[in-house]
Design a protein that fits this description.
Length: 332
């Protein structure tokens, strides 16, 4: 009985969703997706955004248009995420350190010396625990669509840093992350939270004397001109989560959304496949610039940095979750 009575409702629902699909794609014109980010076109994220725009134009041109706004032209990451929640923009790829206001768990990616290399990061992100984290902000209206790699972070400063003691008292520019703040406090250095777009000037003006960046960002921001020393610490990772507004995303008709998700998977593959090569290319640019000396650490020297930053794990293990940390370690 119950089933028979609800049948017309089911038919109505199917008809109305078919109607809304047609209306969305045809009558209201293409769906416009504004992709806002803080990087240059030549960076891993900038290239990913442009490839996404190109493939969507080629395959879904009459139904979807991606507008790309790079270089913090619209928003920095913190303001951008709030704009995304208000659906003023629909795509972003902030670094994983930028989600502090929305979830505790993503802080895992900031723990110093957690991942041995980018391959381990990739493995963790691909496993069920890593995939689950893409949905860790759904209650806040943010859904993760993919992880995009940039690379492992290196420390730079206005003086050579071989031991953690040499960093004491320096001001380092950091992203807005409690873990990163604790990381620098552990080596008795200070941290100053600044948007990406303000980093280069703050280093030039002397507001901060050091920073932590993957090779690509150091080179793309031309930090060679303001940081004479870079220590190859590989102490952390800077990767991205491609995110969208969940209500907007699930309102896109199923067929179009599936095609978009297919294209995103292709772009993600491309961005992540080329990350290691891009890192090498940027490292070479920096080495060849003749402006920044690259300092390599012996195993013992690197172990000393690791040991001095290790207390940070203890401090954040309850917030992040011990099991999650163990599963990340298992990816090494
Ligand atoms: C940063 O603020 O350092 C990074 O988030 C920049 C980036 O690559 O997005």
């Amino acid at each position: 009985m119950k089933r028979v009575r609800s049948l017309p409702i089911i038919i109505l629902t199917i008809l109305s969703s078919l109607f809304s699909l047609a209306a969305y794609a045809d009558e209201s014109g293409p769906i416009v997706i504004r992709f806002s980010h803080v990087s240059n076109d030549g960076s891993p994220k900038g290239k990913g955004a442009l490839l996404l725009q190109k493939l969507v134009k080629e395959r879904l041109g009459d139904k979807v248009v991606i507008e790309v706004h790079g270089n913090s032209e619209l928003f920095n990451d913190t303001d951008g995420l709030e704009a995304l929640r208000r659906n003023e923009i629909q795509l972003m790829a902030p670094s994983l350190s930028k989600f502090r206001a929305y979830t505790d768990e993503l802080q895992i990616f900031d723990l110093p010396f957690l991942f041995d290399d980018l391959a381990a990061v990739d493995k963790f992100q691909s496993r069920p625990k890593g995939r689950q984290l893409l949905l860790s902000m759904v209650k806040q209206g943010i859904v993760g669509l993919a992880y995009w790699h940039n690379g492992m972070k290196q420390l730079s400063a206005n003086k050579p840093l071989t031991t953690p003691e040499e960093a004491a008292g320096l001001n380092f520019r950091i992203q807005n992350s409690d873990v990163l703040k604790a990381q620098f406090a552990a080596i008795k250095a200070n941290s100053v939270v600044l948007p990406y777009s303000a980093m280069s000037k703050a280093l030039a003006d002397g507001q901060v004397q050091g920073a932590e960046n993957p090779w690509a960002n150091f080179d793309e921001q031309n930090l060679q001109s303001v940081q004479p020393y870079l220590t190859e610490t590989n102490h952390g990772v800077l990767d991205y989560m491609l995110v969208t507004n969940s209500e907007f995303w699930y309102d896109i008709p199923f067929e179009i959304r599936s095609q978009l998700e297919g294209i995103i998977a292709e772009v993600t593959y491309q961005v992540n496949q080329t990350a290691a090569g891009e890192t090498l290319r940027h490292r070479e640019n920096i080495a060849n610039s003749g402006k920044t000396e690259i300092i390599s650490l012996s195993d013992e020297q690197r172990a000393a940095w690791r040991q001095s930053m290790q207390p940070v794990w203890q401090e954040f293990s309850d917030q992040i979750g011990k099991r999650l940390i163990r599963s990340a370690q298992a990816a090494n």
